[in-house]
Design goal:
Layout (H helix, E strand, L loop, with lengths): L2 H20 L15 E5 L4 H17 L4 E6 L2 H8 L6 E4 L4 H9 L2 E6 L7 H9 L1 E8 L10 E3 L7 H11 L19 H9 L5 E5 L11 H9 L5 E5 L5 H8 L5 E2 L7 H9 L3 E5 L2 H8 L4 E5 L3 H6 L7 E5 L10 H18 L1
Parallel strand pairs: 1-2, 1-4, 2-3, 4-5, 5-6, 7-8, 7-10, 8-9, 10-11, 11-12
Amino acid sequence: MSAKKKDHTRFRKNFARTLQVIGKRPHTQPLFHGNPESIVILARECYGDCILLTPLIGTLRREYPELSIYIIAFSKIIFNFFSADPNVTEVYHAKRNMKRYYKGILSKKFDLLFNPKDHPSTHFLIQSLLIRARHKIGHFNPHHEGLFDQLITLEPNTHESAKNLSLLSAIGSTTGEPCRPYLPPMPVCTATASFLKTIQPGKYIGINISAGHIGGHRTHEQWSQLIKSFTDETFIILSAPKELEEKRKLEQPHPNVLQSPSTQNIYEVGEIVKKLKLLITPDTSLVHIAACSDTPIIALYRQHLADRTQFGPLSTLQDIIISPTPDIIDIDPKQVTAALHNLLEVLSAKC
């Protein structure tokens, strides 16, 4: 761990200890019982986190149809994501439009507040303290003690979706099967809409070349070699807008790659992934987008346990390939080729 990261971690822990002194709940509340009328959920900062929160939101809406669900976002992309979700009553940005935030959230009192993070986060703890709720629920961490009425204890490296859904047990909900992850409906641009009409479901293999962190990229040559190894298959290349040039360079020289438009939002990506035979992707939000449509997946992970345990694929058919290093560039191309052969055989046997 770098000195800068150590300093940041030390600051967060010291800040959390301060909040534990000034923000300690006045008395121990009994466990929450009954049907909640309102809940405030603090939303984590990345698309993958959002998608893994949707099973909880969808299940809450199903189990408590009259429940008012308020989402607190800490970034614009998350604000926009949940603003499109019909299961959500209202979305507020904790760092912008403070007049609206005060009027809609800080001036009111709610039945429940849920902080989904299991580690001390400065912004999340501040909002957990400021937002008034009859019952505040979080995950166990020594730096959370005293700030919440109820702390949920789970096994280390529990999957993020299970951590979120554990709220249901904490409030005494006896729900059945939870909702699957989903993407809120968003506008689809003309180019993507036209492209979607041309592709036959279950015919194409998707390759996502983008990554959300250091050590999450494969080389152009590695992807190109994989495509050349499966001349009887047709591929669709997906990428973030900033890597459109790399996407085009990979599309142009290969006759078995179908050129596709640059997607304008996460929902458009999901609509393409929904039509794929399977998806090959580094550990990014595409792993969780695939889960929304239960698209089979080959996921490439760094040598980091939490990546694949807390944020692993939820697709029914999946294969996780782990790099021997903190960089997926070091995954042997033969492993990826073999995994694709195997998954294609499984899919062929199901037909």
